[in-house]
Structures are given as C-alpha cells and as structure tokens.
Design goal:
Blueprint lengths: L14 H16 L6 H28 L7 H12 L6 H13 L14 H6 L8 H4 L1 H5 L3 H4 L2 H8 L1 H5 L3 H33 L19 H6 L6 H6 L15 H11 L22 H19 L1
Helix pairs in contact: 1-11, 2-3, 2-4, 2-11, 2-14, 3-9
C-alpha cells in the first residue's frame, strides 16, 4: 500500500467538527439510561428508513453520482429527508464525495487510510481543517449542478435545524426516550455506518474489479448501509445505480431505485454493464456525468 502519510502537526484543528462529534457521542451515551424497547424500535425504524433513502439513495447515488433522475420537486423532498441524517451540509457532503472518487487513495483523497490508518479514514480526518473545505471556490467547482439551486444552499446552512426538526414530534409521541434514541443514538449510529464506507470498505473484504484504489466489498457494511458495502463495485463504475453486482451482493438501495423507476418517479437509471475487469478510470464517471451537463470547460477544470 502506497503511503501518503499526513503530518497532522501542520494542520489546524476543526473545533466545530470536534465539538459536534463529541457532543453527539455524549448524547448517544446519555440515551442508554432512557432505553425502552419502544424507543429502540423507533431508533431502528428511523435508522433503516433515513439511512437508505436519505443518505444512500439521495446524497450518494442521486446527488453525488447522478445515477438516476427524479423530478426536481421530488429531489428537493429527498434531499430534505437526507438532512435528517445530521451528516452536515449537503453541498459539502457531495463535493467531498466527488473529490474522494476523483483522488481515491491518493494524496488529495479527503479520507484515505493511507494518510493515517483506519481511524483517520473513519473519523479523525474530520478533526482537522482541510484546504478543500475552507476554500469555497475550490469545493464549489465540484458541485455546479447543486450550487445553482438556492434550496441546497438553504439546506446546507440550516442542516442541523432540519436534523432536529423531528424532536418535537418524537417528544410528543414518546417523551425523552423517543428523542434520545430516535435522534441522538440514531444519528451517532448512522454516522459510524457512513464512516465505515470510508474506512472498512477501503481496507477489508474482497474485490471484483481491479480498480486503482483500495476499495473493497464488505458484506456487513452492505447490510448496515443498504448496499453501500459493495464499494469496490461502486468505485469501478461509480455512476451505476446498482452497487451489488454478483447474485449474493444484495443491494437494498438498488431495489428502492428500481421501485421508484417502476412507479415512474426515477428515470434515466444507469443500469450495470457486464461485470468485467476495469483496469483504469481516466476520469471518474461522476465527474463525467456532471461534465455532460456543464460542458467541456468544467471537464478541463477537473482534469487540471
Ligand atoms: Zn471509496
Ligand atoms: Zn460514491
């Protein structure tokens, strides 16, 4: 494995992220004494609804990779649902993920384990300021298809307000146990599941495709993250709406997308091509898709 170790002594701490992540973990631990089976059930239901639909289907396959299209009103609705995940501004989420695909496991990958091991890729990279994040001109180049929508700026600015918007409803339904488990425990669990896609699936598991990065397929991440664990397949053909490619690689999100296509809400679904060895991706497919929309100038900038 090529080492691109980062000297953290040269980086500035990102206190906003450090405090936010610490607080959400303290609140998740504080939820334990509030345990009831009903509260646990609410946590699981919200987890297995918000995570596949909000994060996996919307933030990842729809907004980051444009693996299918939906009507604009429905895209806004889904993105709002995604903000319930509490995973930060949608514009940054998508920009950082496209950057990850473009520079996967090289120097400019925002969260490669090659920079600092498993924990770096899982969470500790978030504890430091990244030049990419701090430079709006730089990151907005990666999301021209989203920055043209005022709504995504609004959603990015008030993402935590949206994430906490279900608190009054949950309190009304079941008091503090529902709030602590349905919001804070659930957000903490969902963060770790998303982070496992950055850490575990660039470290363990098997590979169907000979990609240039360290991406791999990990079955338990695929179960927890609704198909995202088939990450090597995804890196091989990143704008494909299906991540599971072998018969045993169950991909819940792919089934949801096919369901949306069946009822006419999803169109232009990128179906998988034949499974074959992919030696090289000159330019990431996600970038190609956006380039189709925004022309060659964007494409040239991406190559620079
Ligand atoms: Zn990856
Ligand atoms: Zn991706």
């Amino acid at each position: 494995m090529k080492n691109t170790k980062i000297d953290t002594s040269t980086l500035k701490y990102h206190w906003g992220n450090i405090i936010g992540i610490t607080v959400i973990h303290i609140l998740a631990l504080a939820a334990i004494p509030f345990f009831t089976w009903k509260a646990f059930l609410v946590c699981m239901i919200l987890f297995f609804v918000i995570s596949p639909i909000g994060v996996t289907l919307t933030y990842h396959r729809l907004l980051s990779h444009r693996a299918f299209k939906v009507p604009q009103w429905f895209e806004y609705f889904l993105a709002t649902f995604g903000a319930l995940s509490g995973q930060g501004p949608v514009l940054m989420w998508v920009a950082e993920h496209r950057l990850h695909h473009r520079f996967s496991d090289t120097k400019n990958d925002p969260h490669s384990a090659r920079h600092g091991g498993f924990w770096w890729s899982h969470v500790t990279h978030l504890f430091y300021h990244k030049e990419f994040e701090d430079n709006k001109k730089l990151w907005s180049r990666y999301v021209p298809d989203l920055t043209i929508h005022k709504y995504y700026h609004f959603l990015s600015k008030y993402n935590f307000v949206v994430a906490l918007s279900i608190v009054p409803f949950l309190y009304w339904m079941g008091g503090m146990p529902f709030v602590m488990w349905g919001v804070f425990m659930r957000i903490a669990l969902m963060l770790h599941v998303t982070w496992f896609v950055n850490s575990a699936t660039h470290r363990w598991g098997y590979r169907n495709f000979d990609t240039k990065d360290d991406s791999s397929n990990v079955w338990w991440v695929a179960i927890l993250a609704a198909g995202e664990g088939w990450h090597n397949n995804h890196h091989a053909q990143s704008n494909c709406a299906a991540h599971g490619r072998m018969w045993w690689e169950f991909d819940l999100t792919w089934q949801l997308i096919k369901g949306l296509e069946f009822v006419g809400l999803a169109t232009d679904v990128k179906y998988p091509g034949p499974v074959r060895q992919v030696k090289e991706c000159e330019l990431d497919n996600a970038v190609e898709v956006v380039a189709d929309q925004f022309g060659n100038q964007f494409k040239e900038e991406m190559r620079a």
